[in-house]
Amino acid sequence: MYIDSHCHVDFPDLAQNIDQILFNMQHNRVSQAMVVSVCLEDWPGLMALVEQHPEFFASVGVHPGYDQVPEPSYADLFERAQHPKVIAIGETGLDYYRLVEPLDWQRDRFALHLQVSKDTGLPSIIHTRNAIDDTLGIMHELDAGQVGGVMHCFSEDWEAAKKALDLGFYISLSGIVSFKSAKQVHEVATKVPLDRLLIETDSPYLAPVPYRGKINTPALVVHVAEHIAQLRGIRAADVAAHTTENFYTLFNKAHPLTETLI
């Protein structure tokens, strides 16, 4: 079985086809998926979807690229994190790709999420784009490794990956690993210890080869695993087994479908 550790099936393009998405997941042996929060305004709809389906877990957080939304408070995040199907904080982090300084609000938001992670014991889902040094610096300064988490959709080099691993974080690879031009991601895919690796789709974005350019769904996470397996010279089944075990180890509030959800 496979698990998609990061998707956005609550987004309109996917939510309207949820029955087909679930069917395709089952067909491809993708047992469960994490539906990741990007803003609190959309969180009730995300949770309404997650609560209906045992295949889905949720996070709570506000994406660093969302600048035209109210800032979350500690209570906003902490209280929502108590829901039995909320198993992570985020996605959070830094994104300097589109927005320009001053970005103190973004760094403050990141710090807030990391504090809630420590206080709830729920791992952080870290987004970083054009901001890896500051991202790792804040993680180190605030002792984010106390609870840990995952560097989602990792696209940095091996040196950055090592620093994240040293902080106790996992590395999650997306469909980018299937792109021929993504040489530094290929290197990371071969070097990350198998007991610290996760796989994801980040759907509806970043569909892997041979579906590149199309709408991505959790069922396609199998192709991420297959490309990692090819790079490492192992079986896709081995990637599936390790990444599934890693998911439940990191997100220890989660339960497999064979267990009863609280």
Widest sheet: strand order? 1-2-3-4-5-6-7-8
Number of strands: 8
Q: Looking at CATH, which topology would you report?
A: TIM Barrel
Tell me the number of helical segments per DSSP (H or I, 4 or more residues long).
10
Estimated structural class: alpha/beta
Description:
- This protein has a single domain (2-250), classed as Metal-dependent hydrolases (TIM Barrel, Alpha-Beta Barrel).
- Helices cover 39% and strands 16% of the residues.
- The protein is built from ten helices and eight strands.
- It has an eight-stranded parallel beta sheet.
- α7 (158-166) links the parallel β6 and β7 (170-173).
- The radius of gyration is 17 Å and the shape is globular.
- The two termini are 22 Å apart.
List the helices and strands and how they pair.
Blueprint: E1 2-7, H1 12-15, H2 18-27, E2 30-35, H3 43-52, E3 56-60, H4 74-80, E4 86-95, H5 104-120, E5 124-129, H6 132-141, E6 149-151, H7 158-166, E7 170-173, H8 183-191, E8 197-199, H9 221-232, H10 236-250
What tags apply to this protein structure?
globular; 8 strands; 10 helices; TIM Barrel; 39% helix; 262 residues; alpha/beta; eight-stranded parallel β-sheet
